[in-house]
Structures are given as structure tokens and as C-alpha cells.
Hints:
The protein has one domain. It has two helices and no strands. The protein is flat, with a radius of gyration of 17 Å. The chain is mostly helical and about 60 residues long.
Amino acid sequence: HAHCCKSELAGYKRPRAYFSVDALPRNAANKVLRRELMALAAAARDQSDERYSTNLQETSQGAE
Length: 64
């Protein structure tokens, strides 16, 4: 998917990150609950940031 966006979209329109979910959160009228989706994205981003900082710390400790 990323290669498609890179060739088709301007840089400012491309998403910075992708994440997948099994199902979109929806209400009784079957509309997507955007706030819940944004909360899922934030949680995924926080988890990704935590893994990145852990890997970075392990790498820097190995260099000492």
C-alpha cells in the first residue's frame, strides 16, 4: 500500500503510519465511530513508540 501512496499522492497527503484492525468500531446506525478509531490509532502509535524507544535503548547500550 505504501508504494501506491508514494507514487500517487503528494507528500503532505500521505499517511505517516498505517495500522490494521479486524473491524471498524460502528454505532447502531452502522456509522464508523471516528473518536474510537482515533483512540485505537493513538494506542497503536503509543505501543509502536514504546517498542521503538526500547529497541533504541538496547542498541545504544550495546554500543557502550
